[in-house]
Amino acid sequence: MVKSPGTEDYTRRSLLANGLGLTPPMGWNSWNHFRCNLDEKLIRETADAMVSKGLAALGYKYINLDDCWAELNRDSQGNLVPKGSTFPSGIKAPADYVHSKGLKLGIYSDAGTQTCSKTMPGSLGHEEQDAKTFASWGVDYLKYDNCNNNNISPKERYPIMSKALLNSGRSIFFSLCEWGEEDPATWAKEVGNSWRTTGDIDDSWSSMTSRADMNDKWASYAGPGGWNDPDMLEVGNGGMTTTEYRSHFSIWALAKAPLLIGCDIRSMDGATFQLLSNAEVIAVNQDKLGVQGNKVKTYGDLEVWAGPLSGKRVAVALWNRGSSTATITAYWSDVGLPSTAVVNARDLWAHSTEKSVKGQISAAVDAHDSKMYVLTPQ
Length: 378
Hints:
This protein is α/β, with parallel strands linked by helices. The chain has helices at residues 5-17, 31-34, 40-52, 92-100, 127-137, 154-166, 205-216, 242-254, 270-276, 279-285, 332-335, and strands spanning 26-29, 62-64, 104-110, 141-145, 173-176, 194-196, 227-229, 259-261, 294-299, 302-308, 314-320, 326-331, 342-347, 352-358, 360-365, 370-377. Keywords: Disulfide bond, Glycosidase, Hydrolase, Signal.
């Protein structure tokens, strides 16, 4: 457990020194679409698709394995063993392949006796050993879950793996997944690069909107090196409309959430690709200022979200959670602009600019849809 401020400061400096998470991570994770049905063929083909479809060039770099990649039991030396039936080449070979594409490989473990699927061991009590194993395989990212944890506080379990990763000899992004149970935004910046603020998302409007709200209350704690995580993207998995997925992607980008694609990118349709490949929306997420946008105004089901960007710009989302088209207005006083400011308003989904806008911006927004702007003072 982290004992003293000195230790925390040292760990925090080390986490920042690893250069990871200066902007939110972008990539893909197997869980939302494939659950336990992952294998090395999927990992290689997803890496291929990430490059060939142009997503890698937009910043999507991590190819992340989630649960179910290992055998149920450790070997005689206590090491994790990749599942022979699905990863016959082990993990290092697919990691090398992913790296050859200019991408990074992520892996999954759990701060407990077993992972959430109960099909493989957790890393509780094996932190140093597993961190060194991951490093030897060329792993770049660890998602660390919270199941089967013997009722030990996350504040005790997670720092042990954090230190083990720092000792592993490799820079590994550390993603805490304790589901927001002990308000990790208030303590995890000394431990990892991102922390879940919510329970798992599912592919529905109600789940997505509730994750957005639960994550929003912690906005002030996020920044370069450490991000709030409202869970991975469901865009393209079929449970929401394209309109709803546009809102999902817009709010995650504005909230500086990790942008981890959760669909099958090998076979995604054109509408899904158009959402995930919007370079202007991605640029809001990856802005170097690193300030999480948040909900600044609510009129019943109509919401204004906003946050500052570098260069004195402001990102704004007008989000209609209601069931019919409505006009939503964002006033300069609500979004952090001087009342006298004159701005150019760039519509990030229409890719059009309205010049010399004064005082407010208004738009008719369809049910469950959102408009997203970058406001640049003249």
